[in-house]
Design a protein that fits this description.
The protein has 607 residues and is of the alpha+beta class. The protein is 17% helix and 35% strand. The chain is built from ten helices and 36 strands. The strands form eight sheets. An eight-stranded mixed sheet has the order 29-30-32-31-33-34-35-36, with helices on both faces. A four-stranded antiparallel sheet has the order 1-2-3-4, with no helix packed on it. A hairpin with a 6-residue loop joins strand 7 and strand 8. The protein is globular.
Length: 607
């Protein structure tokens, strides 16, 4: 990489190197104490922030970074998850907010994959979710005065801790404290049911919109009311074909539907006094915020710029802090009181070009795509189809250093919210099941045809690229659409789906069984039809693959299987393996990988 000064450093590198911060989390009973993530040292780590004094302290310092952390409600301690070099398998650690020794938070629990964490208002009660290949999902309660954690839940299917109510854990059997659990005991890992239990594991209430798995409707925990003794639970539901919030009183069973007149997906969180909700609204790749008053039913818009809100939080004084960006403008944490909440020192990320919206008629309905191209450029241009991961995710009008790097180098970038993406209704998200990968590629092909016909894209210089699920779709697309793509770039992909299923973390096995309708032994033909390895001998485009050696989501063995098949027939390919998990938290490593991809395309894309 270059050793240029900041002044001569390319803009695309500056966007990666510029210090960033996440939306700060804050302690409910000590709101001046906050926790956030920053890349200020060149690696993404957790930072403690005392707002009263202004002091910011780096709380974690690990070679491969740390991003999973929770601040206790009393503000006394930071819990953070310690894995090994990105393998996502480890234990929760705890340190004092002011700094000090890291200790294992729950010594009685062996390492596992995390399945949620909720901390009690007293700062000492905790509910820990764990997942292992041997045990499935287990949930454990830690209480003051009780030496060992107590297991209160176990099931082979995936589950997780949703939230812990603000009751008193000191009462007998913890009767004043409730735990909300999301579970998929019905076998549909894409649509959870809810169960509320006491600290001893006894059931208080259940809510299941799947009707035992017969309906494809999911629920999600959004949080208990932040008021002592309040049994209201904020829940996300899909009863009208999209995500919306409702209030479920788990004591009385009453369900209050809010009927918000907003298109698209809607989520929510409580204002600190429980009298109102902060509404997060996403529609057609953009987001905004609203305030909903329980007393009057009034819905009032919170003033935010046009773009994407990646997170928001209501403060005790009624103000709202939110993380905002657009495709053109770098992310910033703002407050409705005016000004910037956190402004890290150092270079600022250069602006990028704005995104343009395109709607294309596809085989399953209208497809939304986002397009960026160099300012003033006219087509046909070499074009990168940057495919998002998930698959239950979506590209939005938000700042992204990767696509901006391609634009800086003269490429157009097209991002497709294919069937399987969130934000366009439940049916759009669920449509990929059983024909996994192939459905998404039909939509990508439709947008590709538009890009060529419109004059934007040069049909001889098309790059298919993506990471995670996007990497999977890249390899699958190179094999099933070999004439469509000139070069392929696949980061941390699924490459051999059967081997991936055998080696991946347990929660992803459950998701794959839902997507395919069974395991590879039960539905072998579906796995074969959707596996990039099936079509590897049809791949003609040069392929660049990058992979984390410790990745539990797209494990390395199945990638090696695919690469070995390319090598066996001397297909043009390069592989870059690095010491991390499902992507890197180290800035220099991210820059290196983008540089390798840029160079690979420069060498192999037709002139």
């Amino acid at each position: 990489m270059t050793s240029e000064s900041n002044g001569s450093m390319p803009d695309w590198e500056k966007r990666f190197r510029a210090p960033r911060v996440s939306l700060p989390d804050w302690a409910e009973d000590a709101p001046d104490r906050s926790l956030f993530v920053s890349n200020a040292t060149g690696t993404y780590e957790l930072y403690a922030w005392d707002r009263a004094t202004g002091e910011q302290r780096q709380a974690t310092d690990r070679a491969n970074g740390t991003t999973d952390g929770v601040l206790s409600p009393d503000g006394a301690s930071i819990w953070w998850f310690s894995d090994t070099d990105g393998d996502e398998f480890g234990v929760w650690m705890r340190q004092p907010f002011e700094g000090g020794e890291d200790v294992e938070a729950v010594p009685g629990l062996a390492p596992s994959y995390p399945a949620g964490l909720a901390l009690g208002r007293d700062g000492r009660t905790a509910v820990i979710g764990r997942s292992t290949d041997e045990d499935g999902t287990t949930l454990h309660v830690v209480r003051p005065g009780v030496q060992d954690p107590v297991e209160i839940y176990r099931h082979r299917e995936s589950a997780g801790v949703g939230d812990l109510s603000w009751g008193s854990p000191q009462t007998e059997a913890g009767g004043g404290t409730l735990i909300a659990i999301e579970h998929t005991e019905h076998g549909d890992a894409m649509h959870s049911a809810l169960r509320v239990v006491r600290l001893d594991g006894s059931t208080v209430a259940e809510l299941d919109d799947t009707n035992g798995g017969e309906k494809e409707l999911g629920l999600e925990v959004l949080g208990f009311a932040p008021v002592e003794g309040d049994s209201r639970l904020l829940v996300g539901h899909q009863r009208r074909g999209r995500w919306e919030p409702m209030v479920w009183d788990v004591a009385s069973g009453e369900q209050t539907d809010l009927h918000l007149d907003l298109p698209g997906d809607v989520s929510a969180e409580w204002y600190p006094d429980g009298s109102a909700l902060l509404i997060a609204h996403e529609f057609e790749a953009r987001g905004d915020l609203w305030r909903y008053e329980f007393a009057t039913g009034a819905l009032t818009k919170v003033d935010t710029p046009v773009g994407s809100v990646s997170g928001a939080s209501a403060r005790p004084d009624g103000s709202v802090e939110y993380l905002w960006s657009s495709a053109a403008e770098p992310p910033v944490v703002r407050s409705t009181t005016g000004g910037v909440v956190l402004d890290p020192p150092g270079m600022k990320a250069p602006a990028a070009v704005p995104v343009e919206d395109v709607w294309v008629e596809g085989p399953g309905g209208r497809i939304h795509a986002l397009v960026q191209k160099p300012a003033g450029a006219s087509g046909p241009l070499p074009t990168v189809f940057e495919i998002h991961g998930g698959p239950t995710w979506h590209d939005s009008d938000a700042f992204a250093a990767g696509p901006a790097a391609w634009v800086d180098h003269g490429y157009a970038v097209v991002r497709v919210n294919y069937r399987g993406s969130t934000g366009y209704g439940r049916e759009w998200t669920d449509a990929l099941k059983h024909r996994v990968g192939l459905i998404e590629l039909e939509d990508i092909a439709a947008v590709r045809a538009w890009a060529v016909a419109s004059g934007l894209a040069d049909p001889e210089r098309l790059v298919l690229s993506g990471g995670s699920w996007g990497g999977y779709l890249t390899l699958l697309g190179l094999g099933t659409q070999p004439d469509a793509w000139a070069v392929g770039l696949a980061a941390v992909p699924v490459a051999d789906y059967v081997a991936a299923y055998e080696d991946e973390m347990e929660a992803l096995k459950a998701l794959d069984r839902t997507l395919f309708g069974g395991s590879p032994d039960e539905v072998p033909d579906r796995f074969t039809a959707s596996s990039p390895l099936t079509y590897v001998d049809d791949v003609r485009a040069p392929v660049f693959v990058s992979a984390g050696l410790n990745d539990p989501r797209c494990p390395i063995r199945q990638i090696d299987n695919y690469v070995d098949r390319l090598a066996a027939r001397d297909a043009v390919h390069e592989v870059y393996r690095y010491d991390a998990g499902h992507g890197s938290l180290v800035v220099e490593e991210r820059i290196k990988q983008v540089g390798l991809e840029l160079d690979f395309v420069r060498r192999h894309l037709p002139r």
